[in-house]
Amino acid sequence: MNHKNYPHLQSFIEVERTGFRGDQEYNQTLYYISSQKLSAKTFAEKIKAHWLIENQVHWVKDVNFNEDKSGIKGIDVAGKFSLLVTLVLNIYRSLGFSSIKEGQSWLGNNWEKI
User: What's this model's pTM, rounded to 2 decimal places?
Assistant: First the structure.
């Protein structure tokens, strides 16, 4: 493959995702490009690992902690805030909460116990 905007392009990957979110069926076709030539199985494993991190960390930080809407300026402060949010997220998970919202609710109702 030779593309003027992506000179290192080696692979073009198409992934079809189907399933349910709640009771709603969904079908998606996703496309990826890569500078590596790997087997379909290896790409599938890497893509799955990427989405695991996205769903368990990035999405949670954005939805539950409004990280994208925080308005924090400056890379130093934003990085420290993100680290703090990750620490809180890990504390909730280590305490065994099945959801971050559940942990936040518990903390709000038990602040004086800490």
Answer: 0.60
Residue 62 CB contacts under 8 Å (≥ 6 apart), including other chains: 68
- CA pair distance 112, 8, nearest whole angstrom: 56
**Cα 33–chain centre separation:** 19
DSSP secondary structure string for all residues of 92-110: HHHTT-SSHHHHHHHHHHS
At 3, is the secondary structure helix, strand, or coil? strand
Answer for the pair 3, 12: CB distance below 8 angstroms, yes or no. no
Phi, psi of 61 (to 5 degrees): -65, -35
Over range 10-33, report the average pLDDT. 92
- Helix pair 75-94, 100-109: axis angle to 10 deg: 90
